[in-house]
Structures are given as structure tokens and as C-alpha cells.
Amino acid sequence: MRILVGWDNPEQADLLGMYLGIGDHDVTVALGGDELASKLDSETPWDVLFLSITLPDVETGFETFKKIKRNWPDLPIVGACQTGDVYRVVRFMTNGMSAYAIRDEQGDYMFMLLAVLESAVEAVRAMRDQQVAEKLREEVQSVRKLQESMIPAQIDAPEGCTIVARYEPSQIRVAGGRVVTMAGGDYYDVFTLGDNHIVLLVGDASGHGMKAAMSIMVMHTLVRMIRTQRYKNTAEFVQEINNQLCQHSVVNEEGGFITLCYGLLQLDTNELQWTSAGHPIPLVQNMVTNEIQAVEVDTAAGLPLAIYPDIEYDTFTYKLPEKYRLLFYTDGLQEAFPDNKPTKTGEFGVDGIIRTLDSRSGATVQEALQSLFDDSEAYTEGSGRHDDTSVVLLERDVTLTPA
Fold first, then answer.
1. Structure pTM?
2. Is 323 exposed, middle or buried (0-12, 13-18, 19+ CB in 10 A)?
3. Are 232 and 264 in contact (CB under 8 A)?
4. Which of 2, 32, 8, 37 is nearest to 20 (CA)?
5. pLDDT tens figures, 311-357
6. Is residue 103 within 8 Å of residue 80, measured between CB atoms?
7. Residues near 147 by Cβ (< 8 Å), separated by ≥ 6?
8. Distance CA 98, CA 162 (A)
9. Among 70, 177, 202, 233, which residue has the least CB neighbours within 10 Å?
10. What dihedral angle (degrees, nearest 10) is formed by the CA atoms of 236, 242, 247, 250?
């Protein structure tokens, strides 16, 4: 700790330097206002100033104090006053002095002085950390709101379909059990094309926080730019998105990537065409037999986006039953686990998702969506999901007319 002392008694200077110099502390004693100003103007980054309020008198000392606070607002200042001048230190404290010590005639205060200075420095550092944390929280909140604004709040479903979707950012618990909502990296979009097709997109940027949110914003912009083009082949669409993302360092720096599942549903045939770039495979629930399975059980997902350009992706097709529920989701849903025993219980998993869909087959699609979030959250036993979670659930309940 680098300690600067502004003192008014030459006879005590050496003694102060000795007591305060215990350990690795670097102590400089300035006698009088001019010498103190010279030391403050030097390039030495002082950690704390121990200042006599009578330098050489209280009024001059107060003016000196105000000037120091004005020019070095982040420097902790601990005042020193005589026993009879305690009441005079009040205006110093109300103007930003960190602490004070009472100078008894015997000099016993010196034994406790180092602890007072260290406490003042720690208190100021803690306050700065809190201010930085609050500023960061505000910035993260702004980014999170911007990211959430990209996700459609209302989904217009064509006749015979009900589509519900939901996004929840991850949360962490900090000291004191306070829950902090993070900026996230999940994304979904659902829209219809004019020829009886529905597009379903679900994405997930690696990591958490602001970088993940910014990565998703980049992808969202690209999707909006090319969504008007007619990509009837889902693999071609994913390949185009991948090549575009590979050119954006905000996404792929430090090993960043995005997983994506892109589906194209043809309503008049109930045929789903889809491509996965490292993303969980969609699940389908037959609402007549209640059978639930992945739309492709033997196929590994393709490589995530923004890792290598010119990657070739596969297009898969799946014939859906006449009455069904189709689930697109991010891995935050299945990877929920309780903090205190993750290895014992494992994750909520695809099995947990299937259990919920099965148990809510008689409920509305809105209630089924709510249950997916509720059951996954309950599985964590209060610790909460540590990853962003997005779910798109489509229900089709129309008997097709034979062509």
C-alpha cells in the first residue's frame, strides 16, 4: 500500500513513517501544504492519504482537503484531528472524507492507524467494485433487452395450427443469494411463407453474457436479410448463414460459434424439411397414439455455424402424422440439473422433455409449453437453469384432404 501523509508536526514525521511502514507499505510524509501538493502532483499512484485537518489550521486544512477531493476524487482520505477538534471533522466527513483518527497526546493512536487506513482503502475499493458491477449490470440489461426485442412476441399461425414460443435467459446466484439475469444467446423466429409453408428457426450462441447476445444479433440481422429469398432447401439456407457468420469476428473470435436448427414445414402435405447445425433434433408427438420421438434418431447434427466456411449441410425430411405437436428447443431445456447433485441425478434430458409432453398430451398447447419450463425448472431443485432456454411448440390438428 502506497501511503502519503500530509502532516503538520515535524517531530512526529519519522515516528509516523516507522509505524505506517510496517510490512511492505511504502510511506511518504509531506510536511506542510506546499510539499503535500508537490507529492500529489507526482506520478506516484497513492492508495491512501492520511491528512491532518490542521494544516496549518482547520480552515486552511479544509480548503486543502476540498482541493484534493476535487483533483483526486478517487483517492481515499483519512483525517487526523486533535481530541478537542472532533466536532470540526464533521464537515470533512460530509464532504467525502473516508474516515478519521483522533490524535491523543501520548501518540497511542498510531498503533491502530494502519488498520484504519487499510479499512478505508478496502471500503473505497469495495464501493468502486460495486459501482462497476452496477454499471456492468445496466449494460448487460440493455443488451439483454435489445436481444429479447428481436424475438417475436406474437406469432401469427395459419388456420389449423397453434404456435406458441417462449424464451427465458439464464440466471446466476451471487453473494447473498441474489439472482442475476444474464444477457443471453438464444434465438428463435417463426414466420409463414405465402405458399403454405412455415419457417421455424431456433439458435443458440456459445457461452453467456454480452458476447453471446451480440452473436445472436448478428445472426438475426443475416436471417432478416435473406429470409425473403426462397430457400426451399434448408441446407442451402444454413450454408449461406454459416458463410456469412464466418466473416464476423464478433461471433467466431475466441472459439465462438452458434448452433441452429432450421425447419420448413409444408402444411398441405405435413412434410417437415429440416437441417441442424450442431443443434438438438426436434421432437414430434403423435396426438392420436401419443408416441413421441425425434424426427431423426440415427443422424448426428451437423457442425455448428461460424467455425469453418463452405461447410456442406444435410437436408432431412420427415412425414408428420395428421395430428401432432412439433417441438424445437435449445439445450438449456434439457441440460437443467440441481446444483447440489448434478452427477447423481443427471440432467433433465430429452427423457424429461418426453415425460412432460406425454403427461400434458390432454392439455392445451399453451399449458404444455408452460409445463416444459415448470418441470425443467423444478428439476433443478431451486438452483435454476444455468443456460438460456427457448422453446417453439407447434400443434397441428387438421385432417388433411387427400390430393
1. 0.67
2. middle
3. yes
4. 2
5. 999 999 999 999 999 999 999 999 988 877 655 568 999 999 999 99
6. yes
7. 183, 184, 213, 216, 217
8. 62
9. 177
10. 150
